[in-house]
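Could someone model adenosine monophosphate with this protein?
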Amino acid sequence: MSFQKIKGTLDYFGLQTKKRRYVESVARNICKLNNIEEIITPTIEYTDVFVRSSGDSSDIVTKEMYTFKDKGDRSITLRPEGTAGVCRAFLEEKLYVATGLKKYFYNGSMFRCERPQAGRYREFNQFGVEYYGEDSYLVDASVIILADSILKSLGLSNNYKVCVNTIGDFKSRMAYQEALRKYFSENIDSLCEDCKNRLNKNPLRILDCKVDKDSEVLKNAPKIVDYLTKEAKEYFDNLLKTLDYMNINYYVDNNLVRGLDYYTDTVFEFIACNDDSNESLNGLAILAGGKYSDLVKEFGGPSISGIGFAFGVERVISLMDKLNLFPESINDRIDYVVIGLDPNTKLYTLEICETLRKLGYSCEMDYKNCSFKPQFKLVDRVNPKYILIFGEEEVKENKVTIKNNDTKEQITLNIDEFIESLK
Ligand code: AMP
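Reply:
Sure, complex below.
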């Protein structure tokens, strides 16, 4: 019997690993420029962490979580997203006691029991950012600008569209939910079974329905703009003005509500699209986020506002692949392959390799073969910048032949002089 990976999971190896690390390192770098601290939280949390945050009617909680009982009969869940765990840590570790804006980024596996398809995995990686402690449209704008600058630094530019919306403050949302409830009750026959259930629990969710998304009923539903309080409207207008000022090319999408309960006011999604026509590549979001004013309080903490986003590393990789955006340099070459052409040279080449590594040069050797052919097969496979050749002569005379693997030029030097030149 041979084993296969679980459906919807991925093995990373070779170039694919380098692509993933490249995307992550570019994002990390931008976070560093923004003075954002890394936070690492567990992959497993008590199930309630997600139920309390995402809401018990969200798709994630009702359908997509990997939940199990541990040996102590506690309900545990593999994290389906990052915000809830970071928020739990923010509170539990009392990170909120520091004054001012607290900024964190995270990077790790998320798990959702979704039907695997292109761009939709059961274990995938998210790179996310969370800001806590300052309730301002300027903070919201800076988070959207940060998201945009990460994607731009990866070479994406006209390949995604930035959709923003507001779902208003509490008062706006209550009025809006009431209007939605009334409207959808009058059109209940055109709703899918899930949406019929959402009608009482959270009618906003119906706007996020994947089944009904193109239906006329959804398109003609009341719009949040008509139910915003003066404050919520002002907040959103100021956000848009800031994005205009900062030259962010955004679209206001009135039907954008996001699938999780904890969002308030600002929500946004970056959707992949074709270079010139803005036509959706696959209709999937590459990055999504929003503001959450009440999540910390919902977890039993003080009333502290937060805002964050996460992008799907796999979706970004696949978009960059389609557009050929990975630089050659991700395929970094090893510096040296060290070849020993005599059985007596093997110990010597082992020692040379260690010396090179200690000096900070990457190298590889063939531990088994002494003849030319198999060792040059290794050179072909590894493609080093240089080849160091030790034949019987070289060892006897304390020399080394150095061959440039690109120009094929070679010189023979005294080994001590060569090592000295590397220092
Ligand atoms: P969400 O937490 O659902 O807002 O997702 C944030 C981002 O994570 C999305 O925009 C996607 O890029 C990515 N994502 C969400 N679900 C999946 C999945 N099942 N497989 C791969 N990427 C995903």
